[in-house]
Amino acid sequence: MIESPLLTKLTGYIGGRWTDNAEGNTFDVYNPATGAVIAQVASMSEQEVTAAVEAGKSALRLTNPYSIETRRKWLEDIRDALKEHREEIGRILCLEHGKPLQEAQGEVDYAAGFFDYCSTHIQALDAHTIPEKPKNCTWTVHYRPVGVTGLITPWNFPIGMIAKKLSAALAAGCPSVIKPASETPLTMIALFSLMDQHTDLPDGMVNLVMGKASVIGKVLCESPDVPMLSFTGSTEVGRKLVLDTAEQVKKLALELGGNAPFIVFDDADLDAAADNLIANKFRGGGQTCVCANRIFVHEKVADAFGDKLAERVNKMTVGDGINGDVDIGPLINKAGFDKVKRHLEDALEKGAKLVAGKQPGELGEGLFFPPTVITEVTRDMCCYREETFGPLVPMALFRTEDEVIEAGNDTEFGLASYVFTGDAERAQRVAAGLRFGHCGWNTGTGPTPEAPFGGMKASGIGREGGLEGLFEFVEPQTVPRGF
Ligand code: NAP
């Protein structure tokens, strides 16, 4: 079992108190590298989730709002606590998620960056008076907190995803009821330990509920006291939340799935493109929403680029992330492993060629999937149409700019995309043509706290990060004053 000074309680946190399930119900948390159960965590009932919403309601201040200075201090304290405890939070994250230790600790720094950004820019949420005086009135715009928000996060960035939401919610003065993914609740409990010990948050301002998604989701969707949900996860669950909140017309912020094209033109620096693809694709074992999912390579450089990729991939190590010196950890669970395997089998059966990695029959036991490169991928293959969420690099060939823009957009998703070319005008045209919220030009980098990030099409609604993200949890209220 996992032991940590940040995990002395394995329960929810409601109204400023660690709160167990009344019947003692728990669920198991696994280390995906070993398969061992490392913790048993409280599974909350409908009554307890409702109590968390009530606690949030009691912390909401509308007529006497928390001052900007107070909110800034909360954000700074969480930032500082994360920085101080980055190693321990990273260790917990590594043990429940599987990503390499250094990468896990880097995710804690990334999370601290969102609290830092919001604390630095919180003044933007102050009220302002517009310079014009239409209709003989003085017009003031206030940014009011939306209210109690439900924050639902996935397992692939156990601290990064909550940091994006919680920093902006606290900046706005919104209490929250937070539900982490059932695979990775321990990192969230550790964050609540830090907030409990190192911040002066009012009771009920942050509440933690864990357990069955159907139970928690039902309360958050149906409660009239929760006017907004911010969700990161699959498009499938995002769609369900749209339907389940339609009756009340709730405000939704949705960060959903991706199917990122990574385009390499024949005038690109192939070594730089290969290095960027490796860094992008194998982060989190390929289990990120911004991982390149379809690699389009100009036919003139396809062989050369494939060789460069194979050379790099063959040097990568796969193993238990806690050992520190591995590049890729295990996949999160058997369903995730089986999906990547199915995509590889399907592609090879339909004519793709293995450039690096193992045949599906040679994969062995456990959740460790070797980095794999295949070429001659076509649009009828599962790995082209679906988000693989694993260390499989599928390469397809293209000839013209128009053809590759059309191919890149040939998906319901619109989250991240990448284009590698030495021609600046072409880069501008391709970025403008790709219907994706993020388009890296000669870089495979994903989001950063300082810039807005989010999806077009079925990849979501709204933005996290940057000033756009800071404004996600406020309702602008206009007050024209007549005399
Ligand atoms: P998921 O299955 O959709 O789950 C995400 C969260 O939603 C989990 O906490 C889950 O709880 C909860 N949930 C499931 N059903 C629910 C319901 N009916 N009501 C309320 N909550 C519900 O996604 P995942 O497998 O954890 O994450 C992977 C997906 O997230 C990928 O598609 C990836 O692309 C996407 N993602 C997107 C972004 C982005 O920024 N756009 C970032 C990261 C990940 P349980 O764990 O208890 O089931």
Automatic annotation (TrEMBL):
Primary enzyme class: oxidoreductase
Enzyme nomenclature, EC number: 1.2.1.-
Keyword annotations from UniProtKB, A to Z: Oxidoreductase
One Pfam family from the record: Aldedh
Residue ranges of every copy of the Aldehyde dehydrogenase domain listed in the record: 18-479
Active-site residue list: E255
InterPro entries assigned: Ald_DH/histidinol_DH, Ald_DH_C, Ald_DH_CS_GLU, Ald_DH_N, Aldehyde_DH_dom, Aldehyde_DH_Superfamily
Coiled coil: none
Transmembrane segments: none
GO molecular function: oxidoreductase activity
Family statement: Belongs to the aldehyde dehydrogenase family.
Protein name: NAD-dependent succinate-semialdehyde dehydrogenase
